[in-house]
């Protein structure tokens, strides 16, 4: 059950973290905190990569064996990354970059 919780938590965190990258890239926004350069294509690729990590973690979490623990841990992972993003993005996290 501990493996289910940890992998589901990581799946939720990765999926929740990948969504803003994917949406920003899909809408043409190239700003991102990744070390791979600023471009919309980079954002889409990072988002897809995070979705892939989330899918693999969810697959190996075996949530069917412990559905309540698995889904709760996944929800906590999404909530955690959402709160981190809300706090981080409240202000410009890169003061050396211009905002438009």
Describe the structure.
The longest helix has 25 residues, at 2-26. This protein is an all-alpha fold and 100 residues long. Helix 1 (2-26) runs antiparallel to helix 2 (40-61) and helix 1 packs across helix 3. It is built from 3 helices and no strands. The chain crosses the membrane at residues 42-61, 68-86. Keywords: Membrane, Transmembrane, Transmembrane helix. This is DUF998 domain-containing protein. It comes from Actinoallomurus oryzae.
Taken together, the total number of domains comes to 1
Largest sheet: none
Number of strands: 0
SS strand fraction? under 5%
**What is the CA-atom radius of gyration, in angstroms?**
15 Å
Order of helices and strands: HHH
- Give the number of helices: 3
Note the gap between the termini.
Answer: 47 Å
Which structural category fits the helices and strands? mainly alpha
What are the low-pLDDT stretches, counting only 5+ consecutive residues below 50? none
Shape, principal axes of CA atoms:
elongated
Question: How confident is the prediction overall: mean pLDDT?
Answer: 87
Residues in helices, as a percent range: 55-70%
